[in-house]
Amino acid sequence: KVIVTSRRELDIVDVLQGGSDVHRIDINADEWNTSSDIRLFIEERSKQLRLNLSTEHVKRFEEKASGLFIWCTTVFRYIEESKESKAHLVTSILKAQSPSRRDNPHAPLYLLYQRVLDSAVSRARDRELMESVLAVISVARRPLSANVIADPLYANEEGEEREGMRVWVENIVRSLFSILYVEERTNAVRA
Asked: Which of 25, 65, 80, 179 could form a disulfide with 71 if both were Cys (CB 3.0 to 4.6 A apart)?
């Protein structure tokens, strides 16, 4: 059996550490500088989204990414999908305080995920429902449609109420496109 990971995942390291049949091969990624690739990605996505980023903005986005492509793809999907002004989002993302990476190298990514979740809903009741939607998605073994996601959440609802809930689930999923994977052909969702 083979496990390949693009970054050091502590839970995987803990499980495999010390096993006599475990052989670790490090591909020295530290020697590979991702900054030029990330900068190119930022420049291209900002052109596609017509953001007109200055050189300083590109540099600051690159610093915020901290070498994580997933941060870049998530932040640009968030900007693209958000109903907020793109210029306002760029400004607020760049002004946001970056957490220390010393304790957790993925802290900037987690902070971005939290921002997406916070902006998806504003009312406490909606937050609880969003958490239920995310729970269903995260435990699913395969991608699910909004109808399938809504079924266990609103099993007691009927008629217009059930249809309203399905629409609500679709809206929540749509507001979370930047952190969820949606299959183009079927619109099925997975984490």
From this structure: 65
Question: What tokens appear for 43 in the block?
Answer: 């420049």
* Cβ atoms of residues 42 and 61 within 8 Å: yes
DSSP state of 31: G
How far apart are alpha carbons 92 and 71 in whole angstroms?
Answer: 15
Task: Give residue 140's identity as a one-letter amino acid code.
Answer: A
Residues whose CB is less than 8 angstroms from the CB of residue 8 and which lie 6 or more positions away in sequence, other chains included = none
Q: Which residues pair with 190 in a beta bridge?
A: 181
- Helix ranges restricted to H, 24-84: 35-48, 55-65, 69-81
DSSP 144: B
Please report which helix (H) or strand (E) contains residue 190, including its range: strand 189-190
CA atoms of 47 and 44, how far apart (whole Å): 5
Length of the chain: 191
Interval 62-108: pLDDT, tens: 988 888 888 899 999 999 988 888 999 899 888 887 666 666 777 78
Q: Are 191 and 180 in contact (CB under 8 A)?
A: yes
pTM over 0.85: no
